């Protein structure tokens, strides 16, 4: 049976996990023993990582591949290279390792087009004659020359309450629709995701499910916890186009999956960078810190967001157009709203 939780219970849980990054000490003492540290990290990942089956990674095989590279004479630098190479097998942007001398995080944006140029948008859209742009909290917004509302939200670590004043302004200006640009938004607080989504639904809706790893085997997962959202603040009923690129990650990735379920919303741009986990931070016996994904998020239709969310309409920026001051995503979003 699916356990049903209110928005606020889930929000509180996810705030604790995403922002608190609770540190769990593996060993009260310290140890520079390379084998002990390698085994400690490998075991912690085995016990808590929820995506082995989804990513088709056999963690025992990974151990057999990398464990022989470590012995009691392995230097710190060499140990760092081995464990980060091992963790790279998971291709997970939420996994990271911090040492006094090094830092590792998987590059989920590698080889993807940027599909975003803030200076182009500022110069050719927000500073265009007759257009007045504003800043409020994490939002940059304006009524564009074509009469469409534009909002860029740069991080889900910033409170979303000021969106109400923005939506009220757009209502007053009778804009045709809203372009909600979350390109280059690297995530943040899930509570802000739920709150922002609440502005675009007229009724309580199911937005997905969360599961947690609860045992050592790849498919040892909890029963899905249903996550719901209620309408909140000023609600918006006109067409919305959400702009995405590969740099949309974590909470932004989850936001994109939720928004694409709403009937008045179209997502446009590039596939997001993925990340559907609530990472927890741990410490190795030698004092190195690392983060590991410990949960998974699924859309209401069961779609696993970890690998990224594809857009409804795939659009990449054309460099020739960009050189002329044209953002292809904004232009096509405007056309979509005009034809809605």
TrEMBL record:
Any one Gene Ontology BP term: proteolysis
One Pfam family name is Peptidase_S41
Q: Which Gene3D superfamilies match?
A: 2-enoyl-CoA Hydratase, Chain A, domain 1 (3.90.226.10), 3.30.750.44
Checking SUPFAM superfamilies in the record gives: ClpP/crotonase (SSF52096)
Q: Name one GO cellular component term.
A: outer membrane-bounded periplasmic space
Listed GO MF terms: endopeptidase activity; serine-type peptidase activity
Domain (Tail specific protease): give its ranges: 119-316
Put simply, this protein is called Tail specific protease domain-containing protein
From what organism does this protein derive? Spirosoma radiotolerans
């Amino acid at each position: 049976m699916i356990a049903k939780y209110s928005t606020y219970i889930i929000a509180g849980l996810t705030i604790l996990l995403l922002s608190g990054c609770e540190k769990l000490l593996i060993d009260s003492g310290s140890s520079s023993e390379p084998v002990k540290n390698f085994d400690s990290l490998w075991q912690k990942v085995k016990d808590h990582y929820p995506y082995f089956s989804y990513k088709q990674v056999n963690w025992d095989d990974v151990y057999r591949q990398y464990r022989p590279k470590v012995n009691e004479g392995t230097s710190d630098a060499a140990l760092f290279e081995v464990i980060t190479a091992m963790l790279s097998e998971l291709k997970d942007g939420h996994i990271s390792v911090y040492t006094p001398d090094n830092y590792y995080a998987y590059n989920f944006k590698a080889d993807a087009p940027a599909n975003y140029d803030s200076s182009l948008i500022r110069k050719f859209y927000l500073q265009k004659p007759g257009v007045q742009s504003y800043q409020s909290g994490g939002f940059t917004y304006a009524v564009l020359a074509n009469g469409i509302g534009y909002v860029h939200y740069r991080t889900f670590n910033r409170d979303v309450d000021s969106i109400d004043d923005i939506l009220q302004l757009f209502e007053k200006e009778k804009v045709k629709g809203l372009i909600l640009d979350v390109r280059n938004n690297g995530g943040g607080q899930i509570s802000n995701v739920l709150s922002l989504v609440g502005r675009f639904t007229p009724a309580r809706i199911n937005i997905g499910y969360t599961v947690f790893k609860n045992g050592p085997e790849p498919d040892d997962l909890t029963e899905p916890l249903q996550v719901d959202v209620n309408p909140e603040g000023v609600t918006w009923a006109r067409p919305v186009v959400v702009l995405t690129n590969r740099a949309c990650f974590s909470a932004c990735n989850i936001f994109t999956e939720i928004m694409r379920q709403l009937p008045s919303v179209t997502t446009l741009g590039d596939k997001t960078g993925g990340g559907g986990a609530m990472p927890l931070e741990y410490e190795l016996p030698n004092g190195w810190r690392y983060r590991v994904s410990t949960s998974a998020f699924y859309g209401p239709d069961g779609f696993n967001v970890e690998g990224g969310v594809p857009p409804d309409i795939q659009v990449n920026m054309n460099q020739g157009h960009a050189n002329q001051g044209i953002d292809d995503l904004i232009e096509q979003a405007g056309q979509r709203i005009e034809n809605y």
